[in-house]
Design a protein that fits this description.
Blueprint: E1 45-49, H1 54-69, E2 83-87, E3 90-96, H2 103-109, H3 117-139, E4 142-143, E5 152-155, E6 163-166, E7 173-174, H4 201-205, H5 216-235, H6 237-246, E8 251-255, E9 260-264, H7 266-278, H8 284-296, H9 315-331, H10 345-355, E10 396-398, E11 415-416, E12 421-422, H11 453-463, H12 465-468, H13 481-484, E13 494-497, H14 498-504, H15 509-520, E14 529-535, E15 538-541, E16 546-549, E17 551-552, E18 563-564, H16 575-591, E19 608-611, E20 617-620, E21 629-632, H17 652-657, H18 666-678, E22 682-685, H19 686-689, H20 695-703, H21 705-711, E23 714-715, H22 725-728, H23 735-747, H24 762-772, E24 776-777, E25 780-781, H25 785-789, E26 791-793, E27 800-801, E28 818-819, E29 822-824, E30 832-834, E31 839-840, E32 866-869, E33 871-872, H26 877-883, E34 884-886, E35 891-893, E36 898-905, E37 915-925, E38 928-941, E39 951-954
Parallel strand pairs: 17-18, 21-22, 21-23, 38-39
Antiparallel strand pairs: 1-3, 2-3, 4-7, 5-6, 8-9, 10-35, 11-12, 13-14, 14-15, 15-16, 19-20, 19-22, 24-25, 26-29, 27-28, 30-36, 31-32, 32-39, 33-36, 34-38, 36-37, 37-38
Helix pairs in contact: 3-9, 5-6, 5-8, 7-8, 7-10, 8-9, 14-15
Length: about 950
Amino acid sequence: MEAEDYPHLAVGRLQLGSPRRYVFGLDLLDGGLCTVDANGEGIAIAIKKAKHNDELAEFFDKEASNLHKLQEYKSPHLIKPIAAYQIGQDRCLVFPWANGGNLLNYWEDHQHHGLNSRGLQWLLRQLKGVCSAIQELHEGNTRHGDLKPENILWFKDGNDGGCLQIADLGLAAFHEKKAHTQNRQGMKTFTPSGTSRYEPPEMDEKRNTDNPRSRQYDMWSMGCVLLETLLWLIYGFKSVGVFQGSTTHFWVCHDRPDRKDYFVHPYVDSCMRVMMADLHGESAYKDLLLLVRDKLLVVAVSETYGSFRGYRAIAKTLHTEVEKISKKSETLRDYLAPVTLVYPADRIRAQQQHNVVYQEGRNLAVPRREDIPSSSPILTTHDAPSIDENGGPKVLVRAPTGDFKSSAQSTSSSVNTKHQQVSQLSLTTEERSVDGFQHSSTLNDEWESMPDNEFAARFLSSVGWDRVRPEQQTDISSLCPSCSAIDSTPVFNGEYNVADLELMSYSCDLCNLLFKTLDNTGTPKSPRVITLSQDGGTVGIKHGPKLLSIYVEPGSDAPKGAQFGLPRLLEPASPDQFTLLKQWIKVCDSGHGMCRRKDGDVPTMPTRLIEVGNPIRLVDSAGIDPSPYIALGHCWGPLKGSAKFCTFKYNVDQLRISIDFERLPLTFKDAVSVVRGLGFRYIWIDSLCIIQDDQRDWEYEAARMEQVFSGAPKAAFLGDANFPESALEYYRDGRQVLVQDLYERYSGLAFTMAIDRSVAILGLQKRLERAFHTQAAFGLFAVYFGRGLLWQRRYIKPMKRIAWPGGRRVPSWSWFSKEGPIEYMSLQFEKIDWATKEFISPFQSQTAVGSKKPSGAQEDRDLTALRGQARKLQLTELEMLVHIRFDSEEEFDTGSLRCVVIGRDKIDHGTDDPKQHVLVVQPLDALEKRCYERVGVASLRFEHVGNEGPWITIR
């Protein structure tokens, strides 16, 4: 035993016995275990044995050195090493044996939420201890770098449950205490990355750089661990497996041309919101969930490692918050009462449909939308006190950031009547009974590639197989016996043990390819067995992500179902690539009826186009013959200086002479190159074809934008020339549901300028208006006006009012007036009587259907004025918080709030608890008592709405 190689770690006086008493596990750096026979003389230990690899030996030396530094830390929740030694080429580390396993094993041992109050108290104390250990590490300028349930060990000695200890600290990043995070920029890190599932989004951004990883890496990982702990506590052990199977990471990345944007994974976000809806009253679970949601699973990090609002918390804040929760659990009754619910997988998936804005790359495909269950899970704990019906003195009520229950029978809350405070009365949309949920579209975001060897053969023949054929590999592949036996498709099909696959990856090239692909997609190593399936030319996890593409070279002996193809993409902007694009367009034009314009439709030319000849120049379409063009759709982003290349009044004449190609932004350069390569002469780009500082030109062109894109034979963002008729077949409930689905999706998009929210959609609105033979303004259609009024904010986060420039006015009853995503109230349309005698649509006294003026035009009519009968709200202040979903976070004089009935549940449909669906309004101006503005919506019982009221104008 060459202990002198590691003088900083003493070899303890262990009575090891003879060597044959060692029982070694797998030869893995991160998990080999050994037990010394304890027959009265020995003790149980764990041994980590390094692989025989020079590079890993370097990390082993670093690990041994780092473990020595752990002796300086005092926390009992940090595992302390016993010894390090080398025998020949074997390098080993000795640790105490965790007889309980790890946190994952602890969950499994208590998989039916089998913790009583005492057990829950112990768990909270342990979590507090773990957080204090992380704080100690971080204050010593040390980052763990691989926090996960498997690295939190459970020593279950003793009668009180034992102790949780953080392990696998050998490869942690230790820095001098004086080295500030910002001062370490550019310092190379020798610490290998942690488990990809629990790593934060910034790791993806820094993956191939030498930049050091922040200590806030651990904060994201702890957020992941705490969330999975909450899942186990609330829904049981099996829920953790379902959750892990639905998420490869806790974040997603949206690739933009000039940057990457990172977001909390839609499934994770949906899960947290459904959990919040399931937790009633004040509880430790809810406080832990708020900590995870608001302070740990936060994408933004501080460069100075400080706790700031809107940024990920630091370890000190985490420890302080968990300590508060632990102390409250010791004094507040029912604060830590056990909870038993069924994992709401269907509700989470249904809610996720509203969250997914961006395609998630190689992550799990978005599941098909399914009906949402009509009721929430039922708590097994005792109901908390209900709200005091008598209310209190009149107060100013701030619109809450949470959502509240609409049924007194189902409300569970904890109310401090002395201070008139609502501790928690939470309900999000997914909790409401939505048997008639209207978003019954059969569209989904699942994309499958269908082999088309006829097209592939035709293309390869046209460009010449010899030109694009890859170079033959001279290296001989090394294959295991199983892979050597593969002689036809399917290549991979059936069950595979991930641990075995990892072992074989060191000697088999094909296993190595599959294992690396699994690892890159974040596929968890637990459960150990995965099922692979081959569909056409792709191999993937069953009901999961696609992993590999399979191709064959052209030939008569190609296996059935195999796809002709190339191992890598063609060179960008090469003649061969443009040939491929032209072939695709030819197939689209000749074989896809949906992409072709209807016979007789004559496209309208845009006012201006960019001619991509030599020189490039701006041209007025009135001076050229009708010609095909390509329309470019792009995201402006926060452009500054020279990057903002636009047409203005001062330079429009110069641009008509020539446009310097080198001055164009990169996106525009690429677009011009593609247009030329495809053989077109003109392109339409909004920032160049609209005079940006001419308000009249901008409004006119914005209203015609839909015509520009639908008139383009090809668009950089392709669209359907026959929309919306082609989309209606996918919507079970027809046009109004199509409108709602489109607007809900659109409202979730981000705009560089919030005021563009109401303008960018005018083209779509005009197209729908024309197709539905009705009038439209401000996101509402005359034929569906009542339904269109009943929108509400989608998330807990309140919406923001948009400040409009002079000369532009958007009414408060339109969602155009607010910033933030919306959703429509979940109503069964056929069971609603629309109260058309109690409100007057702005369209009812306006010009006839079929007006040729652009949507929203107001030259001779005022479409901002909605008339309605204002009724009193028969609710206490607390009941208003329960029943009304306010749009914005503002203070309201509850005595002045009124409601306008838009629709009522039909009594003859057997509804047990019929409601009236109303707009909630407040006076717009103290001097104009009959002029009001919308502040929210509600579904109220009949007795909650007054019988009469004056007619008012809502703007």
